[in-house]
Design goal:
The chain is α+β, with helices and mostly antiparallel strands. The protein folds into four domains: about 10-65, Uridine Diphospho-n-acetylenolpyruvylglucosamine Reductase, domain 2 (2-Layer Sandwich); about 75-305, Uridine Diphospho-n-acetylenolpyruvylglucosamine Reductase, domain 3 (2-Layer Sandwich); about 335-410, Roll (Ubiquitin-like (UB roll)); about 420-490, Orthogonal Bundle (DNA polymerase, domain 1), CATH 1.10.150. Helices cover about 30% and strands about 20% of the residues. The chain contains 17 helices and 20 strands. The chain has helices at about 25-35, 50-55, 90-95, 100-105, 105-115, 120, 125-130, 140-145, 165-170, 245-255, 260-270, 285-305, 360-365, 420-430, 440-450, 460-465, 475-490, and strands at about 15-25, 40-45, 60-65, 75, 85, 150-155, 160-165, 170-175, 175, 185-190, 195-205, 215-225, 230-235, 245, 335, 340-345, 345-350, 385, 390-395, 405-410. Strand 2, helix 2 (about 50-55) and strand 3 form a beta-alpha-beta unit. Helix 5 (about 105-115) runs antiparallel to helix 8 (about 140-145), helix 11 (about 260-270) packs antiparallel against helix 12 and helix 14 crosses helix 17 (about 475-490).
Length: about 500
């Protein structure tokens, strides 16, 4: 009698297996590789793609086109008079930390600060957020309000083909874009601001951090010398299949001053110009009410010149001071059996990538570290490690991208016999309960200590650790442990 097959729950079923990774040297080279091998999946930060592959229960395979090795991958040019240029590898953390971005692209910087957690912002890219095309992706409304356009390349028989698409024309539906097979976005272009431009970005979510937007909005105004509005762009996201511009609200503003009456009319027009969705995060009615409140408050802030008031005095990035730039080393192609060589806590180790293809599983299988898998979705922070001095979620890092890099796990900070001051503080302040989340918390906290030159405020600690979850609700003791360790270090 043939035994009946055991049916697995969908969460037990394996996702798509990464069978190879190809590294590109330039964006043109990436387009050439993609033309030669169309099934390649471009990957930059990997925070969306690896999750999509893990959730794909078809049992398929995937080969990745690694863009992180591209020359100029993370370049930003704020001085070109024609347009600000952000290369495809510019991360959310890079925007948050750049003074020029905060000065010239405030709505984008505000959006980037609200995306995910410090660990995710260290990896996730602006272009990746645009290309994923979810209407909940926060940078879309910011860049749409800023009148951005994407520069797209592909390789044909005659050579490199280039084209530009205004962002408002780039989206063709829910998670659908104008990108054609074989095409890549190599940069985003944003018009240089005038002295009379003001902008702001706002969102409503269900929690303080790592919240998918219920509604997000970007607003950019050009003001005349008498402070009347010459032009307006109001972009609304998380309300429909794609992020939308509200022309009705803009028309009410143009030619008017930002008086309370005009602001109120524009806010109502913005809500009436869209048809909000009902989903698990909010009802359509709630979204409509939120739009009115958000747009009203945002326009009032612009009217009073308060658009920068909510920006933190200091933003923890979870990047150790003096962190080295990643160095690209051979090989340029990783097959499933190619050794990946990584310095783990000062010891170089080499082994092929496991089935999942993630750095987390490579560390657990190869190095036997105590780095934990909590959610495998970049939500809990249990798998936080330092990758070349940056705190990252190792569950969303392709292992091949760590080749030639230095990784520090909780074991690299100290030992049982000689714990680091941060580890000892977690013990002294009774911050360790079940202990499952603690490796990620300690690594994140130590990266914060390696980054800042003075003790953080409580708000800065909370922002820095917003990507780490404790299911035993030990936050008070954890925050006290971090504060105590850094205060002691500053006094010695």
């Amino acid at each position: 009698m043939t035994p009946k097959p055991i049916e697995q729950h969908w969460v037990q079923q394996p996702g798509s297996r990464i069978t190879g990774v190809v590294r590109a040297e330039t964006f043109a080279h990436a387009a050439e590789l993609l033309a030669r091998e169309p099934e390649l999946r471009p990957v930059a930060g990997g925070t969306d793609l690896l999750l999509d592959l893990a959730r794909d229960r078809t049992g398929g395979t995937a080969r990745l086109l690694d863009l992180t090795s591209v020359d100029g991958y993370g370049a930003m040019n704020f001085d070109d008079p024609s347009a600000i240029r952000l290369a495809a590898g510019v991360t959310h953390a890079a925007i948050v930390s750049a003074p020029e971005a905060r000065q010239k692209l405030l709505p984008l910087a505000q959006a980037c600060l609200e995306i995910g957690s410090p660990q995710l912002r260290n990896r996730a890219t602006i272009v990746g957020n645009l290309a994923t095309a979810s209407p909940a992706n926060d940078t879309i409304s910011a860049l749409l309000a800023l009148d951005a356009r994407v520069h797209i390349i592909s390789q044909s028989v005659g050579g490199l083909v280039e084209r530009e698409v205004n962002l408002q024309d780039f989206y063709t539906g829910f998670r659908a874009t104008d990108l054609r097979p074989g095409e890549l976005i190599d940069c985003v272009l944003v018009p240089q601001p005038t002295s009379r431009r003001r902008g702001i970005w706002v969102k409503a979510g269900l929690r303080k951090a790592q919240a998918i937007s219920v509604v997000h909005a970007g607003i950019v105004l050009e003001l005349a010398d008498d402070d009347t509005v010459e032009s307006a762009r109001i972009a609304l996201g998380s309300v429909g299949p794609s992020v939308e511009l509200s022309e009705a609200a803009a028309q009410i503003l143009v030619g008017q001053g930002l008086t309370p009456e005009v602001v109120s009319r524009a806010a109502v027009a913005a809500a009436e110009s869209v048809h909000p969705i009902d989903d698990g995060r909010a009802t359509a009615e709630y979204r409509s009410d939120v739009i009115v409140a958000m747009i009203s408050r945002a326009l009032s802030a612009l009217a009073n010149g308060h658009e920068r008031d909510q920006w933190p005095t200091r933003v923890p990035l979870l990047v150790a001071t003096g962190a080295p730039e990643p160095q690209v080393v051979s090989p340029s192609v990783f097959e499933f059996d190619t050794d990946i060589s990584v310095s783990v806590n000062g010891t170089t180790m080499a082994a092929p990538s496991p089935h999942s293809g993630t750095l987390l599983d490579w560390l657990r299988v190869t190095a036997g570290t105590g780095t934990k898998e909590g959610c495998a979705e970049g939500e809990c922070g249990a798998c936080t490690v330092q990758l070349d001095g940056k705190a990252v979620m190792s569950c969303l890092v392709p292992a091949a991208q760590a080749h030639g890099s230095a990784v520090v796990t909780v074991e690299g900070l100290g030992s049982v016999e000689s714990p680091s001051p941060m580890q000892q503080s977690f013990v002294d302040k009774f911050a360790v309960q079940c202990g499952y989340c603690i490796p990620g918390f300690v690594v994140a906290a130590q990266t914060l200590a390696d980054e800042l030159d003075s003790p953080p405020t409580r708000e800065e600690i909370e922002l820095a650790l917003s990507g780490n979850l404790c299911r035993c609700t030990g936050y008070y003791n954890i925050i006290e442990a971090v504060s105590s360790a850094m205060a002691k270090a500053a006094s010695t």
